[in-house]
Amino acid sequence: MFDTMEQRFRALKTRADFCALRYVEEDGETLAVRQGVAEPLRRRLDRGAMITVLHKGGYGYAATADCSSAGLQAALDRATAWAEATAGHAVYDYSQIRLPKPEGRYLGPGAEQALDWNRKALLDLLLDESAAAKAGDERIVDWSAELSRLAVRQRYVTMGGGAVEQAFQMLIPGLSVTAFADGESQTRSLGGQYGGICRQGGMEIVSEAGLLGAGRRVADEALELLAAPNCPSGTMDLLLMPEQMMLQIHESIGHPLELDRILGDERNYAGTSFVTLDMFGHYQYGSPLLNVTYDPRQRNEFAAYGWDDDGAVADKVWLIADGVLQKPLGGEISQARARAAGFDIGGVANSRACNWNRPPIDRMANLNIEPGDKRMDELVAGIERGVLMNTNVSWSIDDSRNKFQFSCEYGRLIENGELKGVVKNPGYRGISATFWRSLKAVGNAATLDVMGTPSCGKGEPNQAVRVGHASPACVFADVDVFGGEA
Amino acid sequence: MRAHFSRLAEHLRSQLQAGEAFTLWLSAERTDFVRFNHGKVRQAGQVAQSYLDIKLVQGEKHVSQNLSLAGNDDDLPLIDRILIELRAALQDVADDPYMLLNAVPQSSERLDATALPPSETMVADILAAAAGVDLVGILAAGPVQYGFANSQGQLNWQETVSWNFDWSLYAHGDKAVKRGSAGKVWSSEQLRTEIAEAREQLALLKRPVKTLAPGSYRAYFTPAALAELMSMLNWGGYSEKQLRAKRSPLLKLADGELSFSPMLTVTEDTLQGLAPAFQAEGFIKPDSVPLISAGKYAGSLVSPRTAKEYGIAGNGAGAWESSESLDVAAGSLPHRDVLKALGTGLYVSNLWYLNFSDRMAGRVTGMTRFATFWVENGEIVAPLNVMRFDDSIYRLLGSELEALTLERELLADPGSYGARSSASARLPGALVRAVNLVL
After folding, report:
1. Residue A371 DSSP code
2. Do A205 and A239 fall into the same domain?
């Protein structure tokens, strides 16, 4: 089908200055069990094409699942009509940009071979973990487990040369347990309740993610939380584990550095940014311990790829080095718009669409914190009074990505350099512009974990994209911490 | 599309083997999306998509496939192939004790296919009306279709041609007038009027900005802001399944431990809403479902699966058991008296990015956004810098709720994750004695 699509596209009639085809196929399946009963089996097959046109300074696109020659020609004509209709009324004169015409092929881990997806065996595995979570305990009132697979193949073709094919294989395991007693309930999960353990690769992810044996462990932690006191309130040190660090990076570094937000595109929906075009190259974003990279070549992370959806080649870029802001998360078009505004600040290959039926915009991909030099025991030992928090459960941040408040599933007190008892409903709040400057210790590679999200929301029309985050455990000083209702 | 959908259903009926049955759910649209920034066009395009959910049933077993349709003859061999794969998948799954499908066919049709002008004309109208101002937002326009069919011959269809223009006018920084409008008839004159009114309100946002210290303040929430608060109750709050799983933020309401103000009455009002009156298992939704009545728990949304699992009556809810056509009853405070009744406090036009800080306690946090003003003695004094609140929704809409407005607004959801939303909410504004600001 991919070669056919390329041939059909190249045979289309066009007068456009530039046009490209992005054909995407997604094939997925979800197995799930809840309370010992298999949930309905859900499968998905999604195929379609997006044609993008730059013409006379305008930009137009058209998406269709009618991949016949006639269907593609109609889409090309509609995209061209939109480019012409908006030429002269666009935020940027698109005739000033030359989008790449890349050549190549990228196969993500596991994409080169068929997945060993044994439904019956996997359903049995999920039922076993689910049963271990319940284990006859009346306090366990809801328990579920699931495993999703997703295979994505896409070809990006530019008229007059240029074709890139990419293929990805992904898995998302999950498990969640709710314990209830005396009017109080607590939910604990494997990697979060929103698909936090999502990676590229094959069936090895099932064991790497800790799904095997997770049922009993997660249930025990839910019961621990049920009996635990609320997290104390006050100003104290905060040790964030990777399952929460991913959210902290995502919301208060990733989104504020998106160049389209800085250029104002998202002000009606996802918001703007406290970061401005003049900050790059000198702004002290965090303490000197903070090193942040955009790294789409970390192959097992959820958003690894070879080229973005405007054809730019993906490479590792340091966004923040030794605490100083270096580069924005902006693709070719946003970079050109920033240059036109007098800011030649560079960017990365992050012009991405969630699927064939949405246009590419600036998105996070794999956005990581580089490991430091502290062992886990050293991170704890360096805290006189604080809380360890793990696994995000609640997130809220202002439209400039500054004032945030996050909560976690699980907390543990730290006193005089030692881990103490479990606390429930742990949360903290702060301001991005100052929070990262309080980073006082960064864990080494042994504390690092690979996380991500299958559904980062942004854009008009709305798009939920796949994002990867790898982070070590990190310690922040003097944070405003709180617990649940007394 | 309707003819194609019927043809696919007929084709599937002809392919069934003994003991097999199916349901189909279609969600289709052809939408022109035009994105604006700084009063100009950022991206303009069209998305034509049709997604079909096929559920193949054999005895007590079933499996489902979501499929993008080409909308032409290519779909028939594709469905034949999928049918083979689904039959194979049926061999791998156990009987489902909670499957419940509508056994009493009830076909229906709702066509609301008025003609819109070409989207290019609508864009030209917007650009002209927004000349010289910093407008940012999105126009979505075109037909949206929903369909249900099953092997018993039931066919339900809803088709609407509509537009939704969600936009803001920026004064400076993060200070903006936020608006949204939607309809089935386009009026350039109405658009010009709305943008002109918003231009006038920009003057208020250009006054010197005030910053509040954390603390407790009187506040008025516009219908748009109240919609954000109410949306938190829709995170499983109305779901019978989530109540049973002890995960609902309304668990303490359902158990009678907590209540809202007697002024608060909430209903799922399918009859007055924009969402389809049928659902994916073929059940027809009742015209309305009481959820909260005079501050007390009145009911929940029950999907067929939950109904079967717990042996209770369903009420046509979708799998997520979330409200799609929310109705919050009006109060008695005339809108013209809102500032006077507020006296001194916050006039909150919009809230943003709400989440639970303690779900089971109903404690919610979120931000003010766009145009939030400081009001003194019934007069708007200054725009406010954004503030974070963290408070119990049982308090805000309970002990602290002073009044709801007499007038209500119908808010059509501009959301388009995966597809254009058909959700809507009709709400009043809310005057609150105290909201707790924390940052």
Report:
1. P
2. no
Give B115-180 as a 3 state SS string.
Answer: CCCCHHHHHHHHHHHCCCCEEEEEEEEEEEEEEEEECCCCEEEEEEEEEEEEEEEEEECCEEEEEE
Give percent of chain A above pLDDT 90. 98
Residue A315: which residues within 8 A CB-CB, separation 6 or more? A296, A297, A349
Residues 393-422 of A with CB under 8 A from B: 394-400, 403, 405, 407
Interface check B149 vs A, CB under 8 A: no
Query: Domain boundaries in chain B?
Result: 2-205, 215-437
Among residues A360, A370, A355, A356, the alpha carbon closest in space to that of A455 is found at A355
Q: Which of A227, A253, A284 is the C-terminal boundary of a domain?
A: A227
Kind of pairing between the strands at B108-112 and B155-172:
parallel
Residues A64 and A159 in one domain: yes
Among A227, A244, A276, residue at a domain's last position? A227
Phi, psi of B433 (to 5 degrees): -65, -35
* Tokens representing residue A232 in the block: 């104390």
Report the predicted TM-score, pTM, of the whole model to 2 decimal places. Answer: 0.97
Counting residues of chain A whose pLDDT is more than 70, the rounded percentage is 100
A75: CATH: 3.30.2290.10
Range of the domain at A34: 2-227
Does A353 lie in the same domain as A404? yes
A window 451-470, beta carbon within 8 A of B:
457, 460-464
Closest CA of chain B from A158, distance in Å: 18
Asked if B45 is an interface residue toward chain A (Cβ–Cβ < 8 A), one would say yes
Kindly report whether the peptide bond that precedes residue B77 is cis, defined as omega within 30 degrees of 0. no
Say whether pLDDT at B305 is over 90. yes
- Tell me, what's the pLDDT at A1? 87
Task: Give the phi and the psi of residue A288 in degrees, each rounded to 5.
Answer: -60, -10
Do A200 and A99 belong to one domain?
Answer: yes
* Pure H helices in A228-331: 242-249, 259-262
- Decide: B392 and B260 in contact? Cβ < 8 Å: no
Q: Is A330 exposed, middle or buried (0-12, 13-18, 19+ CB in 10 A)?
A: buried
Q: Tell me the angle at which helices A69-86 and B119-129 cross, rounded to the nearest 10 degrees.
A: 20
Task: Determine, for residues B85 and A86 on separate chains, whether the beta-carbon distance falls below 8 Å.
Answer: no
Q: How many domains does chain A have?
A: 2
Q: For residue A119, which residues of chain B lie inside 8 Å, CB to CB?
A: 89, 92-93
Superfamily of domain B2-205: PmbA/TldD superfamily (3.30.2290.10)
- B359's CB contacts (< 8 A; 6+ apart) are A394, B235, B247, B249
Closest-CA distance, A331 to chain B, in angstroms, reads 15
Question: CB distance from B310 to chain A under 8 Å?
Answer: no
**The pLDDT of residue A486 is above 70:** no
B100 touches chain A (CB under 8 A): no
A263/A179 same-domain check: no
Q: Is the pLDDT of residue A78 over 90?
A: yes
The beta-carbon neighbor of A265 closest among B42, B127, B251 is B42
Alpha-carbon distance of A429 to A406, in angstroms, equals 6
Whether residue A25 is found in the same domain as residue A149: yes
Pairing mode, if any, of strands A163-181 and A199-200?
Answer: antiparallel
Does the beta carbon of A38 lie under 8 angstroms from any beta carbon of chain B?
yes
Strands (E), A313-417: 317-321, 324-325, 351-352, 361-362, 367-369, 385-397, 403-415
Whether A36 and A152 map to the same domain: the answer is yes
Q: What is the mean pLDDT of chain A?
A: 97
CB contact, 8 Å: A47 with chain B? yes
